[in-house]
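Hi everyone,

Forwarding the result from last night's run.
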Amino acid sequence: MVTPLQTLKIYYGNILRTDAAHIPAAHQTLLTNLSGQIDSGALSVADARTQIARLALETTTVASMAYSFFTPGVPGAGGFDYLVSPTGPNTTNLNSDYYKTFNVENRFINFAMNLGKAGEGAAWFNANFGALSARDSLIKAYTEIFGVVPSPTKVDSLLGDMVPDGQGGTFTRQAYFAAFSRDGLEGQGTKAAIVGWLLSVAAKENIGPYATANNAFLADLGDDGVAQFRSDLLVAYGSPPAPGTAGLTLTVAGDKSVSPTAADAGLKSSANNDTITVTGDITGGVTIDAGAGRDTITVTLGTFGTIRTSDGGDTLTLGHLLSTTPTLGVPAQYGTVTVAGDNNVVTLKGSMAQGTKLTAAGTGNVLHIDRTGATDTTFYDGEISGFQTIYLHSGGLPKVIGAGTIYAMAGGSFSIDSSQTLVFKDNGAAGVLYSSADPARGAKVDLHLQNFQGAPTTDAQVGRGYFVPNGGAIGLYVNAPDQLDNNGKLILHVDTDSTAGLIYGYSTSSALGPNYRGPLPNLDIVGPGKLKAQISGTFTNVDATLAGDLDLTYSIAVSDIAQTFRLGDGTNKLALHFGYNVSPNLAPAVSKVYLGAGVDTISLSYSDYAGAPESRLANLHIKDGAILSAPPEIIGFQKGVDHFVLDAQIHSLTANVQQYADGKTSLQDALIAVSAHVAVNTGAIFTWNGDTYIYNQDHIVGVTMNTLEAGGGDGLIKLVGVTGLTVGTGAGSYDIHYG
């Protein structure tokens, strides 16, 4: 299980958009102190999390509150990474040198001014505040941010108080805002700066609906890294809307329009919570207008016409969205659904014809796509936009615009961008992700596992350059236009206990041809859940230091690319498959596995997937037939705590070989001397220069490299900095076990 310190680091990373290696020293110290207080019972985990959230005051909170005020909602996960992450692609992020000289207030002011004057929120801000004076703008913003209307005396003070001008004198606070914006006392930038300052006061003093909603957002984000992205804070995390009043119940045929102004009472919707059921297809030219209220609309068949709602909180269940074939003088009709306002929930049970549209306006909108059991061959050729959260109950992802979080309740292929968060939830079917990348920046793809229960991968094919596994395999293809993405990363969040098949990743490039596949370098495994899975060696740098308990397999090749695998402090099992390379002139890099402070069991494995077993450890490499290459290293092995299980590939050992290694001046000399006394098809354990070595002899006495003949080639693994290990077989508990 994850330790309290790991739990706090995970929470910290989710909120402040960083990994364990980039937590500032001061924050590392704080997290360690908080962890110690939790261990001693002096502090609750909830109180520790509250303190961590306050650390985001200068970064994540600036972005979340400012974006929520000036734009339709907070950014997506990738947007926060861009705006906040110290390792992200934005050189002027809120952790950058540019912002280090800014205090909290000036960070908010600068950020808000950039958004409201010429940035993403400029059009909205001009439409809503452009005609107002700076004074009236302050009143309007203050009322929204703090939930109360300021008195005239308060407004006078907020704008007119004297503050330092930075040159030894003073000027009014309004003049201070104008100095920031450089567009006059009544300029758009000045008014945006006023908003930023008010947001900073709310955040620092933790008062008002914006601050309260932001606290709830950070708590949600910190828990597992998934939140209601691209939604307004007040909508998603503020007070829930009033339930409204029960309205009418209407059942209408699909060739009849419904509207608030209909003359026929049976076709007239009200301003209350109506329930409207449409029998048959909604024909072209027919409109179902539910009007105001929190309405429920059910369409049993298809829609060729139009459906629309007004003010949010509506629930729609739809069949197919269809189109008609144009005829002479009669244009084609396209099914169109538009839901306005916030917090709408739509379930699409049918397909979408080309030209159809399903659109939500507002935030906090949820779409369920559920074609479970569908037998027709049509799919989603229309356009879906405006839904912040999408649940896929049947395979595949249609083209969607603006989604922040996607929950995949079934397997399939998913094309996502770095701003979207994909969650594999309550299923176990194989899934393949496709994402684009800028090689200079490196793709970052977040994938969450929530009760993912996939079967092991037992077979794999390489067809036309594609890796096609079975079971509960999860693959990621990151494509860059001009060259391979050598910085790409998959972040695998194990939010709850999960089991997967082979997890693999490839970097691809259209410039190198459609079938070319290179390794995707980086895989981070984080989160409190236990994970059992197979990890492909296509990830050459695996960091699981902030993961829960793991039961993994991993493949390490003999190549010029160094592979690293870092485990955390939990109870971990790592089965390692060491491949081989028969090129005599290769200079292989040294691959390393770092163990954590917990109890780790390392074992030799047949392969990273069970369908292609290799029954021997034969990774030893001799350059040009004369020079022993450095073996892979296991670092952090604890005598009497950790275990190395050789059973899968080494069934017997030749004893009493240490005497032959003693006194040798090089590892190569020690190995030559030991190998001469190791029986064929057995292993041996010896120490040299303070390290322990696991050696496997093939069917020829002496040090040999794999030559592709059956059973050929020796194997060698180094346990760094540890000696005196116990070795045995049978029922005993040994540091190194064979059998």
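Residues 216 and 561 are 44 Å apart (CA to CA).

Cheers,
N.
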